[in-house]
Amino acid sequence: MQRTLSTSIALALLVVSPMLAAGGASPPLARHPEVASAIALYEIWVAEQMTYRHQPGLSVGIVHDQELVWSRGFGVADVAEQRPAGPDTVYRIGSVSKTFTATALMLLRDEGRLRLDDPVRKHLPWFEYRNPFSDGEQATVWNLLTHTSGLPRESAFPYWTDRRFPTREQIREALADQEGLFEPGADYQYSNLGLALAGEVVAAASGKSWADFVRGRILEPLGMTRSFVGPPPPDLPGLATGYLVSRPDGSQPVGPPTEARGLAPAADISSTVEDLARFVSAQFANGRPPEARLLRAGTLREMQRVQWLSPSWSSGRGLGFSIWRRDGRTLVGHGGWVAGHRASIAFDPQSRLGVVVLTNCDEGGPGVYVDEALDLIVPAIEKAVAPAEEPAPAIADPGRYVGAYHNPWGEVSEVLVRQGGLVIYDHSYPPNDNPEGSITRLEPAGEHAFRMAAPAGRQGRPVVFELLEDGRVARVKVGQNYLFPAGCGKIDRDLRCTWE
């Protein structure tokens, strides 16, 4: 008998992760009233979406810094067996594997075993392909990581059609007859072939296979015990069955077993929400002591910074990661697909919040669930973890600082009182269309001393008002330079003014 939509939603909501079903306590942050309310709404919405999109199962997790704040499975990992999906269900993660290959290369870079500007040929002497656009420019390791090498998207085999993936040796032999698309560094082309070759660089520079290096240097140190390099064992408990697009009769065929073989560094890792949450947490270096970090803080920032910007300026590529802007956030992550499994990770390095979504169906991609988690749950967590706002220190007689000030070049700034505090308004030419865009808040830092407001983790420039005996401002030191009151006449060699 066909189930109604409301019945399907109710059934989906009853299928929870084993940990929650067993009464496991949720982290304190998940019990915060605003966070719990957002999660409850998200759960209802996810179940409704899954029913509408004919998705068998889905697992999701929300990360804040080093904590998996909340995770849950919806639906089933296998339709025939009716096994519930959970945070520990193993899914194929497809191209999210590329971020592990990139991490492996950066580990080797930090150890001095390679450089990003190394020509690929330095590590792979057999790296040759036909490139009619080249004027001698050689593809580098950096080009492989940013998809700017000019290599074609795929190796010279129809594996996405016949599902017979080439071996490493076959990829190497076929490369010489493949043709480049553009000169290295001149453009962008997403390339599974390029990341497969990046895995070969990992092997050449480390002396280990790509699989052994990723397993020993990334998965094991992070405690990713239910993650697998290559296809997981078919009898693995908790393994998700992947389902393809629905047929006209509503049935969903099971995805065929696949092994990426030589393309493994681009697409062949399997994992869980819980394990990928550990990988996302590793992207937030400031939450870990230096000895516990997978990569240096500076290396992580380098990977998460735009290296190649799209012409629209709305997205780009980092080192192994995609980077995009959404609703004022800069997000870093990657998506993946293989044989009925779809995956997505996305995180905000600024707020140290991340989302992991894994699905076992080609219908209803994970991106929509990531976006809604970012819109609904992440802001609630940000509000919950934000330090209580303390009232700004009162400024004694702020009016004494108010006035127009100029530098020796004639440029004028004005100090104003706004909302009980001091701000500097910098005149711009042409004038700013938004007056708020021309002001900088001054935060008290001592007697007659302030700092310009700056983002969290940074210090703004110091601003010090030097007063005369009669209380008037003699000059304002901004950083290492000075502004002078509008009534100041001549400025002497000691950078002091005479009054008109």
CATH superfamily of the largest domain: DD-peptidase/beta-lactamase superfamily
Total number of strands: 22
Percent helix range: 25-40%
Number of domains: 2
Q: How far is it from the N-terminal to the C-terminal residue, by CA? A: 94 Å
Counting copies of identical and different chains, the oligomeric state is single chain
Runs in which pLDDT lies below 50 for 5 or more consecutive residues are 1-24
- Overall morphology: globular
Largest beta sheet: what is the strand line-up? 3-2-1-12-11-10-9-8-7
Briefly, what CATH class of the largest domain? Alpha Beta
User: In the CATH scheme, what's the topology name of the largest domain?
Assistant: Beta-lactamase
Give the overall pLDDT as a whole number.
90
What are the main properties of this structure?
alpha+beta, eight-stranded antiparallel β-barrel, 27% helix, 500 residues, Lipocalin, 2 domains, Beta-lactamase, nine-stranded antiparallel beta sheet, 14 helices, globular
